[in-house]
Amino acid sequence: IGEAEKQFGKLKPKRILDIGCGTGFNTATFARIFPDAEVYGIDVAAGLLRWGHARCESEGVPIHLSQMSTANMDFEDGSFDLVASTIWGHETTPQILSDSIAEIWRVLKPGGISFHMDVPNQPGYQGLVDQVLNDWQIRHNGEPFWMGWAEADLPGLMTAAGYPEDCQFSGYRKRTQGVGDWFVHGAQKPA
Q1: In this structure, which long-range contacts are made by residues 166-169, counting pairs with CB atoms below 8 Å and at least 24 apart in sequence?
Q2: What does the radius of gyration of the chain's CA atoms come to, in whole angstroms?
Q3: Is 189 in contact with 105 (CB distance < 8 Å)?
Q4: How far apart are CA 127 and CA 81, in angstroms?
Q5: Residue 120: which residues within 8 A CB-CB, separation 6 or more?
Q6: Closest listed residue to residue 1, CA positions, set 115, 152, 100
Q7: Cα 37 from chain centroid?
Q8: 87 and 180 in contact (C-beta within 8 Å)?
Q9: How many CA atoms lie within 13 A of 5 on its CB side?
């Protein structure tokens, strides 16, 4: 939330969607930070969602978790004030990433914010050591979609999905914890 508020100022979302939420760790964090908001999390992994639901239920954190693809969401147009993700983009195929960027824009309310943080994605940005580590991730660490993410043109995908260029942002931000950078991207939908 801190990174999103650096970009947009104080947030007061009423409906939040956490895409690629996994076990709902960040989804629960949204619910704690914004206790008056209705918070949803979606992922394709049923087992992770079941575990996340049980954990949040036992902690009394009111969230809605659903098994759903980000490329074809079962939400009405203009449903959310904030659509966010953390390390989701590099876990999906280039086609699903492209389709999901369009779906995010569709479910975002006018004035709503799309904000996504992921691993640094541009090979030219990274030094040789990080590029070698990325290659290792692909070959030996079960990250088959990493290069699709590394080669993705996020501003181009957003523009193709209808995001006005003057509403978009993308770039690198220093991590507040640990070392290295995040790649962040998103937009604020015109009101």
Answers
A1: 169/7
A2: 16
A3: yes
A4: 37
A5: 126, 130, 172, 180, 181, 182, 183
A6: 115
A7: 18
A8: no
A9: 7
Phi-psi category of residue 180: left, alpha or beta, with phi > 0 → left and psi -120 to 50 → alpha:
left
- For the segment 125-183, what is each residue's pLDDT rounded down to a tens digit? 667 777 777 777 777 777 767 666 777 888 999 999 999 999 998 888 877 777 777 88
Tell me the two tokens of residue 33: 């930070």
- Three-state DSSP string of the chain: CHHHHHHHCCCCCCEEEEECCCCCHHHHHHHHHCCCCEEEEEECCHHHHHHHHHHHHHHCCCCEEEECCCCCCCCCCCCEEEEEEECCHHHCCHHHHHHHHHHHHHHEEEEEEEEEEECCCCCCCCCHHHHHHHHHHHHHCCCCCHHHHHCCCHHHHHHHCCCCHHHEEEEEEECCCCCCEEEEEEEECCC
Please measure the distance between the N-terminal and C-terminal CA atoms of the chain and give it in whole angstroms.
21
| Residue 16 reports pLDDT greater than 80 | yes
Per the CB < 8 A criterion, the answer to whether 15 and 79 are in contact is yes
* Cα–Cα dist 149/46, whole Å: 23
Alpha-carbon gap, residue 35 to 12, rounded angstroms? 10
